[in-house]
Amino acid sequence: MKRFAVFNPSTGDLLAEVPDMSAEEVSAAIDKAHAAQAPWAGLTARARSDILWKWHRLILEHSDDLAVILTAEMGKPLGEAKSEVLYAAAYL
């Protein structure tokens, strides 16, 4: 699979190399997501809620690390990135 580099816009440092997916690979990923919907829908509301709350807790537990990643990827101030992470967690 092809990959492309992600650089810190402030320093030019290489942060990561990530997949550069073709249209066919994107379509396959979408198909897998659609296939996963039926088992998800088969879970009870309580089970889905438990999963979403766990995701929420994990975001909060790792909010500092996530904010550092956002800052490195986008060059935004760390405080703004931290607020963005907390804002995203609020949607779960």
UniProtKB/TrEMBL annotation:
Is Nucleotide-binding a UniProt keyword of this protein?
no
Alphabetized, the UniProt keywords read:
Oxidoreductase
Keyword Membrane attached: no
Coiled coil, from the record? none
Q: Which residues form the Aldehyde dehydrogenase domain?
A: 3-90
**EC class:** oxidoreductase
- One GO molecular-function annotation for this sequence? glutarate-semialdehyde dehydrogenase (NADP+) activity
Task: Output the superkingdom of the source species.
Answer: Bacteria
Gene3D superfamilies of this UniProt entry?
Aldehyde Dehydrogenase, Chain A, domain 1
- Under Enzyme Commission nomenclature, its number is 1.2.1.16, 1.2.1.20, 1.2.1.79
**InterPro entries xref list:** Ald_DH/histidinol_DH, Ald_DH_N, Aldehyde_DH_dom, Aldehyde_DH_Superfamily
Which BP terms in the Gene Ontology apply to this protein?
gamma-aminobutyric acid catabolic process
Could you say which protein family the record assigns here? Belongs to the aldehyde dehydrogenase family.
- What protein name applies here? Succinate-semialdehyde dehydrogenase/glutarate-semialdehyde dehydrogenase
- Species source reads Rhizobium lusitanum
